[in-house]
Design goal:
It contains 10 helices and 8 strands. It is of the alpha/beta class. It has one domain: Metal-dependent hydrolases (TIM Barrel). An 8-stranded parallel β-sheet has the order 1-2-3-4-5-6-7-8. Strand 6, helix 6 and strand 7 form a beta-alpha-beta unit. The chain is globular, with a radius of gyration of 17 Å.
């Protein structure tokens, strides 16, 4: 079984063929796809898509690249929506939240405020978090150590070994996807090879972070099996073992997804 732990299937890039993309992913063994929100404007969209499509779950949160355009009331709206949806089994996490110190011009103080508030909500509702972390690993870890959400995933991980181990010590998993498929991605591929088996989950971040063979085209959850094959090759394990281990890791850090899938974490 394969789990795409991070996929923006609600994006406009899929409007013309979303059903076909889902069918192709399912045919190739992608059992579950987690759809993170990025702001209040798509809370309803990801929830509705997850409820209408077999094998889809969702997360609610405000993305760090969207906090500058978010209203001051958006955090209240997020908390109200989490409270209203907490009985929905397809709500599996708070996300996509985090910090982005790579994109110039973003307000760092506002990002940290939104991040800390959303971590507190995740702790209150006992939900894991799906993290966006770019050039901000140490500050992210500082907030995680202070607030201590239950678990989560550091999506598209590209930090150091020391930072990776710090996330693992906090019961997080690390997301790997298309970037891993490029031979020049030496640090990411080394993390895949050398971190312990419980560290990794697989993702696409579709329609973004396309794998090497897509040649800058739209990424899709249907690419996850080939991404898993690259992962297995780097780890020196069978494709089946790679799928099973990353699936177990995803279910461990997202226990509501484990319950939804009918499998123990």
């Amino acid at each position: 079984m394969l789990i795409d732990t991070h996929c923006h299937l609600d994006a406009a890039e899929f409007d013309a063929d979303r059903a076909q993309v889902l069918a192709a992913a399912r045919q190739d063994g992608v059992r579950w796809i987690v759809l993170p929100a990025v702001g209040v404007e798509n809370f309803e969209t990801v929830a509705r898509l997850a409820s209408s499509e077999p094998g889809c779950a969702y997360a609610l949160g405000i993305h760090p690249m969207y906090v500058d355009r978010a209203g001051d009331d958006d955090l209240r709206l997020l908390r109200e929506r989490l409270a209203a949806a907490i009985e929905d089994p397809r709500l599996v996490a708070v996300g996509e939240i985090g910090l982005d110190f790579f994109v110039p011009g973003l307000d760092r103080d506002r990002q940290e405020h939104f991040f800390a508030e959303q971590l507190s909500m995740a702790r209150e509702f006992e939900l894991p978090v799906l993290l966006h972390v770019r050039r901000a690993q140490d500050v992210t870890l500082k907030h995680l150590r202070r607030i201590r959400p239950s678990a989560g995933i550091a999506h598209a991980f590209n930090g150091s070994f020391q930072q990776a181990r710090s996330f693992l010590d906090l019961d997080f998993a690390l997301g790997f996807g298309g970037a891993m498929t490029f031979e020049r991605a030496l640090q990411i591929r080394r993390l895949v090879r050398e971190l312990p088996a419980h560290a990794h989950v697989l993702e696409t971040d579709a329609p973004d972070i396309a794998p090497a063979w897509c040649d800058r085209a739209r990424n899709s959850p249907a690419e996850l099996p080939k991404i898993a094959q690259v992962f297995a090759g780097l780890r020196g394990v069978s494709f089946e073992d790679a799928c099973e281990q990353t699936c177990c890791n995803a279910l461990r850090v997202m226990p509501r997804l484990a319950a939804l899938s009918g499998r123990a974490a």
